[in-house]
Amino acid sequence: MLDVRRLRLLRELAHRGTIAAVADALAFTPSAVSQQLAVLEREAGVALLERNGRKVVLTPTGRDLVARAEEVLEILERASADLAGARRGLAGPLRIGTFPSAARTLVPSALTMLAREHPGLEPMIEEIDPAQVADALRGRELDVALEHDYDFAPSEPDEGLGSEPLMEERLYLAAPKGWKGEAEHDPIRRWRNAPWIVAPPDMLCHSMVVRACQVAGFAPRIRHHIDDFAVVLGFVAIGQGVAIVPRLGVVDTPPEVALTELPMKRRTWVSFRRGASGHPAVGAFVSALRAVVS
Description:
Elements: H1 4-16, H2 19-26, H3 30-44, E1 49-52, E2 55-58, H4 60-86, E3 92-98, H5 100-105, H6 107-117, E4 121-127, H7 133-138, E5 144-150, E6 161-176, E7 195-198, H8 204-215, E8 221-225, H9 229-237, E9 243-246, E10 257-273, H10 280-293
Helix pairs in contact: 1-3, 1-4, 2-3, 6-10
């Protein structure tokens, strides 16, 4: 009989790429992860990993087993959701991941509704970049999370996660009032010679801005890296550059900032481990979010 905990380690290795990354994410030592994977290979009776120096990759059989492991873990999530639904009332922690602009605008109202309707539930919020959500959900650091992607920067689906769409929003070009830009019809290319304010390089929003500018025919001259749209707009207001900001990020825009709507969108959805869509606490949070955005 294959051990589910070891199957989860193999699944994490497939997603994270290295034994060290798996160990760091799941609070094991690398040697412990290696030992458990070796035991799994003995249980399976076939080679699941190929070792080439310090690198470890999954064999075709190992990859097939990961696909089966996803199915097994989904069934276990469904069983856990069924048990939670059989209990009377919602209680206990619900670990929620969110990106900053949703934490500032959507999540507070959703939490207020949860507190009123399910006072025994204990929502725990963690701000997290959408690029890190999949690992956090699979590693059980989160139960549910808000994610987003952009035109020019789509996200890759994850087989271990389920999701429900929540909303779409327009993007805006934010520029200091009084700045003219170039005589261009394209609202992004108009600012090809301006300094730009973008998110840090490892974030999806950074990729979106760079690719949008490339499509407009130029590489942005980046002056500032800032991961907070309120701060970004403050910098725009004092003439430090231009930026692209989603609708949720332009709340309380300073009067010194001019906004131009762009033909681009950001899409937001709610993610959870596959099989957990029927968990009553996850469903309650999704329902509260839908009530907020409706």
